[in-house]
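Interim report, section 4.2 (structural modelling).
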Amino acid sequence: MTLRRRLAQTACRALLRMLPPEMQPWAHAVRHEVAQIPGDTAALFFGLDSLRGLAPYVVAPSRSSITGAACAVGAVALGAVYLNVAGAPIHYARVNAAALLIGLALLAFCAGAIRDPRRWAVVVTQITALSLLATAFFGDQVEGAARWLKFGSFALQPSLVLLPMTIVGFVIIRDWRATTGMLVIAAALALQPDRAMAGMLAASLAVLLALRRDRHVMAAFAGSVFAFGVTLLRPETLPPAPYVTGVLYVWSEVNAFAGLTVVSGSVLLLIPAITGMASSRGRRTVSAVHGASWLAAILAAALGNSPTPLVGYGASAVIGYVLSLAMLPPGGTPEAMRTS
Amino acid sequence: MGRNRALSGDARKILAALLAAGEEWSHGYELCRLTGTKSGTLYPLLIRLASQGFLEAEWQPPCAGGRPPRHAYRLTAAGVDLARNNPPDPVRAAAPRYREALP
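Predicted structure of the assembly:
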C-alpha cells in the first residue's frame, strides 16, 4: 500500500474519530468511497478534502479549551518575544510555534475523540504510567536523570507532555485502575528522577484532596508525596539550560521588558483555571487542579532547574499544556464530569 | 438550503447531476467527477440536502467481493422540484466535464 493511500485512510479515520455520532454515517460514506477510488492520488485528495469540508461538523472544543488555547497562543507569542530579546537562536521560537500547532491539532482531534471523558481518563492514565516507566528505564539520560525520549535530534519529555492531562483526568474519574496508574506514575517520577513533575503531581493532588477527599485521592496523594520526597533526597545534577531554565530571572539578566513578557506569559497559563473556577460550580474542582498543576510547574521553574513552561524554549511543555485543555469540561455541570 | 435562498453554483451542478441520474443511485466520487466539485464541497451539500428532505441516501451492498458497501444518493420528489427550479448557472454548465454529465 502506498503512502498516499495510507494518508487517505488516515484522513478517513480522523473523520470517524472527530465527527459526532449523528454524522458517523457520512464519515463511513467517505471512507468507503475512498476505498473505491482506483488512483492513490485521487483517493488522497478525496479524503483530505472531505476532512476539510466536514471540519465544521467536528465536535467543537469546550469553551475552557478555547480560552486555554488562546492563552497558549499568547504565552508562546510572549515567549517568542522574550527569546528574541534575550538573543536566543531563531529556531527556538520556531520549535515552540511548531509544538503549538501540533498541540492545537491534537486538541482539535481530542475534542472529537474524548466524547466520554470517563473512559478516556483511565486510558490516558495508563498510557502515561507506561510511558513514564519506559522513560525511567529506557529513556535518554543526562547527568543521571532519565526524563527524555529521543526522536531524531529532538528530545521529548513525556512527563511534561502527558502528566498535566492525566492529572485533569484523575479529577474526572477515580477508580482503582486510575489510582494504580497514578501510583505507577509517582514511582516512575521518583525513578527518573523528576523533582518538578513530582512536585506538580503532589501539588495538584493536594488541591484535589482539599476539595474532594476520598480513598483514591488519599492513596494517590500519599504516593506522590513519597515520590516528591525521593526526588528531594536525590541530588539535582542537571546543569542550567539557557532559554529553558532560569527564564523567570530574566528581569535582572536581560531587561525589564523581557521580564514582563515572561511573567505575563506565565500568568496567561493560569487564566483557564481562574475563569473556570469563577464561572461554574461544576468546573471549580477540575479548574483548580488544572491551575495548581501549572502553578506548580511555574514555581518549579522559578525555584529550581526545570523548564519554564511555554515562555521558555521547550516543545514538551507547549504540547502538554494544550493537551491538558482537552480534558477540561465544557460549561455548566455535565453529569459525566462529576467525580465518582 | 431553503427554496427561497439562492443556491450556490456547486449546489446547482450537483442537483442537476442527480436530476440527470433520475431513479438511478449516484455515489460521492462519481458526483465529484461529473460536476467537477471537490469532495469537501460535495459532502456538506449532500448532508444539507438530505437533512432537508431533498435527498435520500442508502447503503448499497458491495458489487464485488472484498469491496466495502457504498453510500448512494438520489433526489426525492421535493429534490426533483428543487433541481428543476434551480438549474445550473449557464456559464459554469458549459464546462466540458459538466456537459458530459447531462443526458
